[in-house]
Design brief:
Helix 1 (13-26) packs antiparallel against helix 2, helix 4 (128-150) runs antiparallel to helix 5 and helix 5 packs parallel to helix 7. It contains 8 helices and 2 strands, in the order E-E-H-H-H-H-H-H-H-H. It is mainly α.
């Protein structure tokens, strides 16, 4: 029981009975009826006190039972939630495995065996005039490679491949000897682009699938021009080495002069007897 937020303090039954008997003893001279009334009153007081304690004990027992039920319900709810989560995880894993199994084995193996492509190395940077030659050369190389793949005529393919090889060497010379850049730029600004333009015309005519008079004549003219261009490009490449050839020839003459002066040429001291 609660009253104003504080529990009632119950009188001890033994203390109450003691008071009753004390009163009975005192009032014995007052008559038997008075003593009986006091005894009955004491009995009912004790019974009331004991009944209140029993009700309080029952209420506490009921509260403990309800608390136990709530605890058990919470435990069951937590267990059900855990089982639901586990079933969800299991279903997700099963679905993932099912999707993996749905992929054909050969594709899975190919995916696993696919090599890792290493990053491409950074392209070197050159002085601006040389870099312009290198960039133009790469662009021309890509277009010539495309034409080689699309033009069906084998004779023309061979000539395109020869032009690719020569032009790549001419561009590489600009890197090795930047003094040749002016000559090479003229080649890249006019001669090679014109050759590529004519090859594009050859490609379009070949794609028509017919050999009319005009188409055949134009294709033959382009084919002949390719021979002329190849010869000219070879001469250009050779001319780029003219200075180097002169330097080499000078070095050879100086070496021969020194060897003769030291007696190592013309009856060389290294000659075996």
């Amino acid at each position: 029981m609660r009253n104003g937020g504080n529990k009632k303090k119950h009188v001890s039954p033994i203390y109450t009975i003691g008071i009753i008997f004390l009163l009975v003893t005192v009032l014995t001279n007052g008559g038997i009826f008075a003593a009986g009334a006091l005894a009955a009153l004491g009995y009912f007081i004790v019974k009331r006190i004991l009944g209140a304690k029993d009700k309080e004990a029952e209420a506490q027992a009921e509260e403990r039972a309800r608390q136990a039920q709530r605890t058990a319900a919470d435990a069951r709810a937590a267990q059900a939630s855990t089982q639901t989560s586990r079933r969800s995880d299991s279903d997700t894993t099963a679905q993932s495995a099912s999707r993996t199994e749905a992929i054909p084995k050969q594709y899975r193996e190919a995916e696993q065996a696919r090599p890792v492509t290493p990053p491409k190395p950074a392209k070197p940077k050159y002085p601006e005039p040389v870099q312009q030659v290198v960039d133009a050369g790469e662009k021309a190389h890509d277009e010539l490679t495309r034409l080689y793949a699309t033009i069906p005529d084998l004779a023309v393919k061979r000539k395109i491949q020869e032009i690719i090889d020569i032009s790549d060497k001419i561009v590489a010379d600009a890197v090795a000897d930047p003094s040749d850049v002016p000559q090479i730029k003229k080649f890249l600004d006019y001669y090679l682009p014109t050759t590529i333009k004519l090859l594009n015309s050859y490609e379009r005519m070949s794609a028509q699938g017919i050999e009319g008079k005009n188409i055949s004549k134009t294709k033959d003219s382009i084919n002949e021009m390719l021979d002329t261009a190849i010869d000219a490009y070879k001469k250009l490449l050779d001319s780029l080495f003219a200075d180097q050839a002169m330097d080499v020839e000078t070095d050879i003459q100086v070496m021969n002069t020194l060897l003769k002066r030291e007696g190592f040429a013309g009856g060389s001291a290294f000659q075996m007897e």
